[in-house]
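Example 5.3 — ABC transporter substrate-binding protein
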Amino acid sequence: MQRTTARTRRARSLVTGAGTTLALLALAACGGGDTAGGDDASSGTGGTVTLVTHDSFAVSDEVLAAFEEESGLTVEQVAPGDGGALVNQLILTKDSPLGDVVFGIDNTFASRAIDEGVLAPYTPEGLSDSAASYAVGDGDELTAVDLGDVCVNVDHAWFADAGIPEPVSLEDLAKPEYEDLLVVTNPATSSPGLAFLLATVGAFGEDGWEDYWADLRANGVKVVDGWSDAYYVDFSGSEGAGPRPLVLSYSTSPAFTLTEDGSASTTGALLDTCFRQVEYAGVLANAKNPEGAQQLVDFLVSEAFQADVPGQMYMYPADDSVALPDGWAEFAPLAEEPFEVAPEDVSAHRDEWIKAWTATVVD
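Solution (predicted structure tokens):
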């Protein structure tokens, strides 16, 4: 699914400037197929480079145009879906890839992409120390571009009107007073959904997380395939018109649901429910334009793109020297102690955990 409507944007795009940012993706999302590379691709000085990404990628027109002018490249986009769908498609098409570059593989799927051989080694020059610190595998196949905390978000007005105290913890979400109030995304199809599953593994351990999800199911949790439906269709807060005041989103989402005077946010993130998500870019193996792909990865970690990340994708730039927007310290903080699962455990048990989750919650 390509990003062509407001519903395909992340929760962080819901306030001032949202209409403008929709226009920023005026590029036609085209397949890498026969056009990727073009006549000049082998020289690395022009032609088309195709970016395979998730349906929440965004960049300012002027930032992208400057890169295209400087590089001589034309950037096209393919967006096969959320982060989980993205990796699945890369694996299915690795012998004839959808494009040249991927952005949006996160730390919950990174090891799978590396193990399946969908990436070619490349480390961009001038990579910041903070971005390099998020290296996975051998550190030369994926480059960290942004990061954020996946957390449950709350609609303040709904709870105030209902006279019910807002939940705080994961345990609270399974209590009777929050029955039928939570919507989350499926970890088999959604990278935020997988991140939240991992948060519960980190919180309750391998012996307790399935019981926790059984409790959530009994308490009426709703599961949808992707973030867009959860936030825009089922969530009652922000621009949503749904019946559920608790939704799986990001800790940055409330920075984009401010009141008109900017003094408060209409939503909040429950920072005791979070898992940290890091998103990566990499050159695809068998790319038709590998030189252009390397230039595009360089661009994604450049100061110009990194400075654009908070306002466009509502994530933290991987380069921690980049200035953040006003208000992020108050309305978009990262969790002080997000739940963690060791990368090697994710790699070893991810598919097993997803199958167990499906049997517990969906089947």
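Remark. The mean pLDDT is 87.
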